[in-house]
């Protein structure tokens, strides 16, 4: 361990580098605001004093728009249903949550979306009965490859009126494929006398668990079923404390991400080649730093919301992403940013 004075010195130098780099990006954003507005149609938001917002980060804009329309209400509904099931029918809670997940999927993806997820689940379950790791992987890769087949894409687009609905289905099927795979691989490893836990109803409960349905984080099937069967749930008072603390942190992270999008038009500048060629080296460094830190804060929100609901359900979610400024290698980024995905990929079964 380095001496305290030396650690403090490095911390101050790091903070100084961060803030000066961000200031350079902020200056360029203000100086070129009009031309960026003409090219990328910056949004005006009264919530931040009339500051214009950079809407060109597709993922953030996509999930915030869906959150306002449907997802926040459906996730709140999951929390309410889960707490009611805990009080009134604790033993039936996994099946009640499964039914709610199917209904929520139907609300946002319609009957064709539910049917497609269910069809993929049935196919994966049937292949898992051969208890072959190779066949399970081939099945998962085949299901994943159908997302990019032009004929299949055209059929799915005809199901929906907007591209946003189609993209939500694509995101959902991509994440669900990891869940089918986790179940199949675990089923292959279980001895024939211990197949009760790998039954089709438990697979449905796992696949249609709604907090992680559209975007993750990844919780492996063994972890999910073990924690669901333990039924170790906290009291109502403890749940309210977890909810209040979690919502407070989520609001802070969301506000920070939105503030970055209002003060620094990093994604718009990154998409403007002439502007990139004209800015200083400090600005380029600030753009790179702002991009990765915005990505970090964004996933604190996108993973933080389902992680909070999982804790309220008595589950232990994977740790949230670690700050990228504290990591010095891509190995650390891989291990500590999406911990659930990392665990899945390095598990002995995988």
Please report the distance between the alpha carbons of the first and last residues: 36 Å
**Uncertain residue segments:** none
What are the secondary-structure elements, in order, as H or E? HHEEHHHHHHHHHHHHH
Residues in β-strands, percent:
under 5%
Strand order of the largest sheet: 1-2
Structural class: mainly alpha
How many H/I helices? 15
Q: Main beta sheet, described?
A: 2 strands, antiparallel
Oligomeric form of this entry? single chain
Which outline best applies? globular
**Percent range of helical residues:** over 70%
Strand count: 2
Q: What are the defining features of this structure?
A:
350 residues; mainly alpha; two-stranded antiparallel ribbon; 15 helices; 73% helix
Give an overview of the whole structure:
The chain has 350 residues and is an all-alpha fold. It is 73% helix and 1% strand. It has 15 helices and two strands. It has helices at residues 4-31, 33-40, 58-88, 93-128, 133-145, 150-158, 163-189, 200-207, 221-230, 236-263, 266-270, 273-278, 281-312, 330-336, 339-346; strands spanning 43-44, 52-53. The chain has a two-stranded antiparallel ribbon. Helix 10 packs antiparallel against helix 13. The protein starts with a helix and ends with a helix. The mean pLDDT is 90.
């Amino acid at each position: 361990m380095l001496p305290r004075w030396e650690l403090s010195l490095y911390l101050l130098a790091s903070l100084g580098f961060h803030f000066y780099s961000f200031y350079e990006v902020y200056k360029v954003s203000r100086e070129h605001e009009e031309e960026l507005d003409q090219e990328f149609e910056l949004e005006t938001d009264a919530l931040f004093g009339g500051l214009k917002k950079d809407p060109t980060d597709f993922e953030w804009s996509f999930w915030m728009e869906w959150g306002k329309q449907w997802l926040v209400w459906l996730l709140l509904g999951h929390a309410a249903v889960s707490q009611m099931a805990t009080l009134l029918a604790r033993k039936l809670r996994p099946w009640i949550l499964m039914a709610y997940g199917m209904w929520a999927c139907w609300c946002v993806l319609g009957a064709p979306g539910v049917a497609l997820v269910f069809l993929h689940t049935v196919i994966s379950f049937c292949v898992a009965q051969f208890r072959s790791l190779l066949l399970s992987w081939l099945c998962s890769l085949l299901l994943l490859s159908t997302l990019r087949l032009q004929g299949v894409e055209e059929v799915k687009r005809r199901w929906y009126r907007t591209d946003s609905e189609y993209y939500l289905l694509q995101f959902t099927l991509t994440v669900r494929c990891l869940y089918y795979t986790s179940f199949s691989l675990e089923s292959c490893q279980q001895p024939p006398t211990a197949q009760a836990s790998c039954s089709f109803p438990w697979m449905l409960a796992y696949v249609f668990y709604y907090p992680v349905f559209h975007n993750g984080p990844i919780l492996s099937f063994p972890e999910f079923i073990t924690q669901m069967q333990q039924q170790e749930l906290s009291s109502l008072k403890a749940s309210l404390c977890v909810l209040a603390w979690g919502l407070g942190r989520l609001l802070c992270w969301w506000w920070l991400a939105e503030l970055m999008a209002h003060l620094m038009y990093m994604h718009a500048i990154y998409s403007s080649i002439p502007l990139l060629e004209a800015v200083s080296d400090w600005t380029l460094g600030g753009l790179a730093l702002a991009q990765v830190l915005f990505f970090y804060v964004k996933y604190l929100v996108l993973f933080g919301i389902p992680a909070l609901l999982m804790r309220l359900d008595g589950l232990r979610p994977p740790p949230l992403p670690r700050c990228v400024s504290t990591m010095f290698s891509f190995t650390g980024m891989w291990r500590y940013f999406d911990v659930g995905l990392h665990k899945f990929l390095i598990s002995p079964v995988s």
